[in-house]
Amino acid sequence: MIRHAWAVDISDSALKAGEWAGVRPSTMAERRLVSAGRRDICCTFAFRQCKRVLRLVVSQEGVKQPFFSTKRKFEKAIDAMVSDGRIRVDEPYSTTVLAVAATAVPSARADIERIRDTMQCADCSCVLKDEGPVDPKSDQYAFVVGQLVQSKFGKGVAL
């Protein structure tokens, strides 16, 4: 079973310089947001928004440790996929973070799009920027949706 919750903060350690998304293991406070047990996998996806950070806290029961259990493992996996040519989009690290979040929690993509509809993010580097990763005409959006469709979580999800 997968549970998720959204939180907002000013900054997040998961965000690397120049990136608009990141992932890391969740803190105890974040684990409490989703009522995660001691053995549940719980990670936090961070998305840069204008002057704040949107955090998606995801808890998974009964699954083995994902490849993004540590930030270093995730970064190595992304680098390998980029060098192999499996990821061919702008900002591959951030785009893959969004794809993993959308795959784990399909409704997260719709949540981000709803937030985008209320924002004006034309001249910034946030996840909601015009012609950015949640714009249906962008290559990044196509990549994220493609990953979602291929995942076991994407079955029956309206796109």
Can you give a write-up of this model?
By secondary structure, this protein is of the alpha+beta class. It has one domain. It has five helices and four strands. The protein has helices spanning 28-33, 71-84, 92-104, 106-116, 139-150, and strands at 2-9, 21-25, 41-49, 52-60. It has a four-stranded antiparallel beta sheet. A hairpin with a 2-residue loop joins strand 3 and strand 4 (52-60). Helix 3 crosses helix 4 (106-116) and helix 3 (92-104) runs parallel beside helix 5. Residues 153-159 have low confidence and may be disordered.
List strands and helices in order, with pairings.
Elements: E1 2-9, E2 21-25, H1 28-33, E3 41-49, E4 52-60, H2 71-84, H3 92-104, H4 106-116, H5 139-150
Antiparallel strand pairs: 1-4, 2-3, 3-4
Quick summary of this structure?
With 159 residues, the protein is α+β, with helices and mostly antiparallel strands. It has helices spanning 28-33, 71-84, 92-104, 106-116, 139-150; strands at 2-9, 21-25, 41-49, 52-60.
